[in-house]
């Protein structure tokens, strides 16, 4: 609904919600549905790429050391975060421009699919180089279904109350980073194998 149509709707409503056309009422309801799913998407995309994987740091280091026959330097291991954020930052401009052309939804669906694939591949890594590639994929996933595109989407649906909507949306980043570490730790305690845990949590983005 364009701005002109909103003005026309309000002009003919006389301030009474019940007299507004159905399209307005449907849009008023649907935008909260959009916000809810954007909130969940941001929660999952941030939690599964930022704080969530840190639960497995010790297991990953030990596992790679057994495969390679030598200890992995902690500094080299922690380059994963740099790789992820450089990828996300470097591709953000292009993702924003592409979203203006094709829309947000297809990019977010691709991002969620990549997030699922990245977590599955995380459980298959055999070297530090493999891990770097997984985190580069995480960076691209954050670009496509992370903060930027979700803010774009919610901003388009909320003309009034935009600040409240974006504030609620951004709470998803904190919730995701608070929720996934204990979830992953719980799954690790039950399953016992960190590689298998990644195979299971890879299903989460597909549910969105």
Automatic annotation (TrEMBL):
Gene3D superfamilies: MFS general substrate transporter like domains. PANTHER family: MONOCARBOXYLATE MFS PERMEASE (PTHR11360:SF290), MONOCARBOXYLATE TRANSPORTER (PTHR11360). One of its GO terms (molecular function) is transmembrane transporter activity. InterPro entries: MFS (IPR011701), MFS_dom (IPR020846), MFS_trans_sf (IPR036259), Proton-linked_MCT (IPR050327). The chain crosses the membrane at residues 32-56, 76-99, 106-125, 131-151, 163-180. This is Major facilitator superfamily (MFS) profile domain-containing protein. Keywords: Membrane, Transmembrane, Transmembrane helix. The lineage of its organism: unclassified sequences, metagenomes, ecological metagenomes. Residues 24-208 form the Major facilitator superfamily (MFS) profile domain.
